[in-house]
Amino acid sequence: MELVLMLTFGFLEDPSDILIFFGRFHPLVVHLPIGFLILAIIAQFASRWPKFQPLKPFLHYLWGLGAISAFLAVLFGYLLSLSGDYDTDTLFWHQWSGIMVLVLSLACYSLFKKQGKNTPFVKWPLVVLVAITITYTGHLGGNLTHGSTYLLEYAPNPVRGMAGLPPKKEPRPKVTLLDSADIYLDLVQPMMDAKCISCHNPGKKKGGLLLTSHTELMKGGESGEVVTMGDAEASELFRRIALPEDHDDFMPSEGKRPLTEEEVDIIEFWITTGALPKGYVTELDSKKEIIETVNTYLGLDQNTIFGQTVEPPNTMLIDSLTDNGFIINRLMRDNYFLDANFSLSEREITQADLDLLMRLKAQLVWLDLSHSGVTDEHLQQLGQLENLVKLNLSGNAISDTGIQHLSKLTHLESLNLYNTKVSGELLNLLPKLGKLKSIYLWKTHIGDTLAIQLQEEYKNLTIVYERENFE
Ligand code: HEC
């Protein structure tokens, strides 16, 4: 109390802050008594051998240093405990065994100072007791900071069993197929593990809430249940993660890395569909509300094309294309994927140009042939450029007859058909272009009705129609 008064005097506006500031040095300071006392213990035993006899007159200095540093550790530890961040039971025992270390090391100091005169009967048990108390205090301290499960988290199962812990959780295999993604086990719990359990674990049960498993989560915290099955809006957990970040109740608190928008959406979906302990996302999501988000979140929508390594293109070939008016760019430093652009050329594309392009079949992923005089016949050949991810055909006299040849372009993510004559054939083409994310259909022969129909069928496809996203 005196200390508090002393520090409050005058210039400090918030005494508790400055105290806790010093308190945070505790984890650093504790290493001093540990070091000195262990050295004292070793020296004490060593001095029984004739070779180390000369140590004897100095032993009490080691105990003295141990006691002084133990005092500092106790003091800083007390300040840290003022933050109230710790599990009170563990804290109680940690604090008192820490004080015990201090008392015992003082006892050793005074005992060994009057060396020789004391009885060895007290001496050795006392030294052993110091060793045990340090170990015990240190262990509890570790539990306070890391949670009581920390130490044995990676221990072999038999060892965990002896300590009364459940067998290790088998890590979930990485999800590679959307169909095998589990809403809780593969999505919600890993989010909790990454962003919440540092404060909501058995050692640090902030708000009385554990987020280490579905069972614990459903038990709720100080203010009762945090999840109302089927109703995200009514769930405290959802309310807290969906608040503006600067709100006092926002979770994770203390400016820790927040959940992303996608993560919040997935948690909302999980609660809305009943906050189940397990269940396949694809089965729960009959209305396909969250599938796309999950797909992106798990990184399953990456175009497999970019996982391949392609050969460097023939330089003579690149030179001829450049001479013919193509602008060719390499897209990645460590691979040979290419972007070819003919839209700035003043002449129309010819059969000879296409033959050259065909020879870049493996490398060509972006192709811009807008306003290049492409015809329906040309499309038959272009349809064989199977690695294309982006294709711009705007401003060409092409129609349904031509675009039917594009059905093999299964890697295509973006297709620009602005200002062409395409129409109904799209209904046959789109189902084959599974990776397609955006399509430009302004100024085509597609009418409003068909555009609306397409948008309804392909909810996650960005259809650019009438200059705006058609949504
Ligand atoms: C930096 C520490 C910290 C992190 C990280 C953290 N929380 Fe908290 N949480 C707290 C504290 C402290 C409280 C109690 C004070 C309060 O209610 O705001 C709390 C309380 C809560 C409560 C209310 C419990 C009740 O019954 O009153 C919920 C729900 C919650 N947290 C959810 C989360 C979720 C979800 C995450 C991860 C996205 C998270 N927390 C991450 C510190 C944290």
Description:
This protein has 471 residues and is an alpha/beta fold. It folds into 3 domains: 2-161, no CATH class; 178-297, no CATH class; 307-469, Leucine-rich repeat, LRR (right-handed beta-alpha superhelix) (Alpha-Beta Horseshoe), CATH 3.80.10. Helices cover 44% and strands 7% of the residues. It contains 20 helices and 10 strands. An 8-stranded mixed beta sheet has the order 3-4-5-6-7-8-9-10, with helices on one face. Strand 5, helix 17 (376-382) and strand 6 form a beta-alpha-beta unit. Helix 4 (31-46) packs antiparallel against helix 7 (120-146) and helix 6 (88-113) runs antiparallel to helix 7 (120-146). The two termini are 65 Å apart. The structure holds heme C.
